[in-house]
What we know:
With 87 residues, the chain is of the alpha/beta class. The chain is 40% helix and 18% strand. The chain has 2 domains: 42 residues, no CATH class; 37 residues, no CATH class. The strands form 2 sheets. It has a two-stranded parallel sheet with strand order 1-4. The protein has a two-stranded parallel ribbon with strand order 2-3. The longest helix is centred in the N-terminal third of the chain and has 15 residues.
Amino acid sequence: MKSLLFILNDAPYGSERSxxxxxxxxxxxxRDGYAIRVSQMGGAxxxxxxxxxxxGLTEGxxxxxxxxxxxxxxxxxxxDTDQVLVF
Length: 87
């Protein structure tokens, strides 16, 4: 199975870029007959710690399946995936 890494890298307000990245992930999953990897196939969502700190967020503020991530983790995921899409 091909792996995709979506990097949503935009401010939380003022743009629809991240929203459109999530919509694309969902459309790809539906087209290829897969569930979104995060919720169904053991994938993960990492929120960069620096972004969380800037917004006063803690791990307790994140939804189920999300965790505080690091740039090192992103580098590892980037090396382990077949294709990276950046929004």
